[in-house]
Amino acid sequence: MSVERAVSVLHVRALGVTVAIDVPDDLLLGPLERAWEAVLCEPAAGGPRVVTPGPLPEGGDRTPDGLASTLSHITQEVTRAAIEARAGQLFMFHAGALSNQRSGATLAFVAPGGTGKTTLVRTLGPGRGYVTDETVGVRGDLVIETYSKPLSVRRPTGGPKDETSPLSVGLEVPRATPWLAGMVVLRRDLDPGLPIELEVVDPLDALVMLGPETSSLARIDRPLHALSDLLHTIGGLRVVRYHDAADLDPLVSDVLAAVR
Amino acid sequence: MSDDVEWGPASALSLRPVVDRLDTQDGTVVLVASGAAHRVVRLSHLGVEVLAAVGEGTTFDALEVAMLERLGPPPDGDLSRAVREAVRGLVEAGLLCVT
């Protein structure tokens, strides 16, 4: 006679959908709950489902590095599932975003992975709404579907990144519904001590620049027209060159002061 | 036939479908899908003219004639080279195919 084990399931909000995470390995449950605590939610029917690895066999990698790698993989799977679920419904940019906790005005900062989004969120996020450090999902009416996922934090000693609850590093989820007030592309290529440089991007070049930093753009109705309209509405796209994330504080404050 | 070394005067060109195209006073961009990936391409003036001149089965010879009518001779006088370079760029961008 076999006995089936009950599989724990976590539910998290990501880009406006509820993603179910099956957790057959009890060792993962606690770390996952802590990492995703900011967006844990009640179950909802019809959302995507992510299956995590089962219990490790004898000799499996039970080290902290092994666990960190597994948690990182799960985050990627949740991201992929949420993006797929919202394809054709949202503009989805590879970007971090912070919001004004009273008005919801939000700045999205577009950048490929590993080029400054999480650092910017950690540096300038306290006192603001943490929208995401990964994917900004924008509706046609500029409202942003949040994805306040765990931060992938690089260890000083190297090794895999740690999936870290945003709440544990002093961030808060948005209290007011975020809406897109501005968008910049990050270029962390200035020498230390230099003031930031802002450059307005030609509207057509902006579409070319943003293309690789979007997900499922082709599944939106008349995507170039829609994206062009979106950029026009928020005053266009700018590139910001900087060295230290803290130097961007005035820019963030300026955009977050916008009103609808 | 992707290698332009193999392109001859009678090689036929045809347009490949795009997801979207945005024309403005300042230029043209197109969105090209390739499987799950996509690419946004800004067209040069020459590229726009080449695409406008290509119909189903248009040959290089016919395209050169059409481009001469549309734009006149290129500054260096080498029409064939100019057309081939433009076609190569459009093929690489996924906007044209040559058979």
Automatic annotation (TrEMBL), chain B:
Protein name: Coenzyme PQQ synthesis protein D (PqqD)
